[in-house]
Amino acid sequence: MSVPSLLGVFAHPDDESLAAGGVLARHAAEGARTAVVTATWAADSPRATELAEALRILGAGELRMLGYADARVPWSAPGSARFLDAPLDEAVRRVVAHIREFRPDIIVTHDAYGGLPGHPDHVHTHRVTTLAAQAAGLEQLYLEAGAPWQPRALYLATHPHSAVPALRDLIGARKAVYSVPDERVTATVDVGPWVGQKAAAVLAHRSEVERGALPGLIAGLAPEARERLLATEWYVRHTLAPAPPPQTSLTV
Description:
By secondary structure, the chain is an alpha/beta fold. It has helices at residues 15-29, 46-58, 88-102, 120-135, 164-171, 195-203, 206-210, 214-219, 223-230; strands spanning 6-10, 34-40, 65-68, 106-110, 153-158, 187-190, 232-239. Helix 1 runs parallel beside helix 2, helix 2 packs antiparallel against helix 6 (195-203) and helix 3 (88-102) crosses helix 4.
């Protein structure tokens, strides 16, 4: 059985490694095509250079950057709109173009909360990607973005409530944390065999390490604690299947 191809769509450089680095490395190691679209930061910025190194470590191909500005760092993409301020239809069309060009079986992105921190760029990436994953398969939408392609599933990177206590010491007790009930999680993935690659990809985002963001906090952990933190990934699956036969009432 072939391993499904996988396209990640994430808000910032480092999100791909933190949220789905293990799954990206696993699929690449098993022979699948993998790639990542990043919504923010300019392609000529230092963070893009770090992202390119992280993608190399994960086996996730070349840079695919939309080039919008980070909501909280306007200078991240000089002359470009903040991702949150860009026309929704424009952003969806650009992600559709990447989906149709890469033709993935699976798309991975942030959950509706935007992951643990609830960053507004994460939340908006979820919105845009969810719309694009559906629109990519509709032949009369975005004709200029390529031939239609319907991925089989959309997986939302998340954290169950039960995982949060172990993260509190790292992320701080006073910060807001967004997680989902454990029963909402449909895929709990052991990425232990690839945790070395995942950690290396996280730490490749050196500017985030240096400023003490989450990669920096991870860098300060003992190797055993780092492995425990990074060795499991959680996802909520949304099926993007063809419509059922015509029906005369709503069913579940």
